[in-house]
Amino acid sequence: MRIVMTNQKGGVGKTTLVFHLATLFANDRKSVLVIDLDPQGNLTSCFLRSDLPPQNNIALVCEDKRPEPITVADHLDLVGTDSSLSRYENHDPMDHLEAIGSWLDTTAGYDVTILDTPPSMGLFTRGALLASDFAIIPADVSWFALKGLADLVKSIEILRASHQTSIRLLGIVLNNVQERQSFAQETWAVLDDQYGYLLFKTTIPESVRVREATSQGIPVTRLNPRGKAAEAYRQLYKEIVSRLQTV
């Protein structure tokens, strides 16, 4: 099962969600592979405190080579990246669009693969969507996020139809929510009206603890297990697992 985390807007917490969901799946004794497709390499930095070895870089896929996963925790492997990936962003999509999926077809033994993508509908994001079974869209509560969300959902549907891929939208999650912010409630109402069941009931609150945790490479569920953010991630994880069991 392959899940891609995507949004064309930056700053919505894609990488933080991937980091926490991957660790929660692994804590549930699922074998997990996480893939960093963002040349910024932020997800890679969450798991590794040192430089990424060349053989573990997803950029190798663009050279028709096979990167090797590196174990970063119990039941959890990573194929990371760094700024070297950016040199392939402007390559002809026809050359590399299906390269991620072709490589993933050669990997075996993982219950869950989670892909983190750049904040754009470029080569790597489209390749990840084509290679995945499900997409999760994190969104913040800004007006620009709402406007872009409709475009992203439409882009996924167009990609699915044009390439006859099986990608399905698993859900939309509101992230970095300030609990007392009235606009957050208004945003929830708008999204619920537009997307209904696709909207996850769990929202992830804005939290200094989460930023501290990711900067240390420690999930907030371990750094501050009784906090609101940790509980929200656990509840979202339960929602995701429940939804996967019914689709």
Your description of this structure?
- It contains 10 helices and 7 strands.
- It is an alpha/beta fold.
- A 7-stranded mixed β-sheet has the order 3-4-2-5-1-6-7, with helices on both faces.
- The protein starts with a strand and ends with a helix.
Layout of secondary structure:
Blueprint: E1 2-5, H1 14-27, E2 32-36, H2 42-47, E3 70-73, E4 76-79, H3 93-96, H4 99-104, E5 112-116, H5 123-131, E6 134-139, H6 143-163, E7 168-174, H7 182-195, H8 208-216, H9 220-223, H10 228-246
Parallel strand pairs: 1-5, 1-6, 2-4, 2-5, 6-7
Antiparallel strand pairs: 3-4
Oligomer: single chain
Low-confidence regions: none
Mean pLDDT: 89
Identify the overall geometry.
Answer: globular
Span between N and C termini?
12 Å
By DSSP, the count of extended strands is 7
Q: Give me the strand/helix succession.
A: EHEHEEHHEHEHEHHHH
Q: Fraction of residues in helices?
A: 40-55%
DSSP summary: helix tally? 10
Largest sheet: 7 strands, mixed
Could you tell me the radius of gyration in angstroms?
Answer: 17 Å
Content of β-strand: 5-15%
* Structural category: alpha/beta
For the largest sheet, list the strands in their spatial order. 3-4-2-5-1-6-7
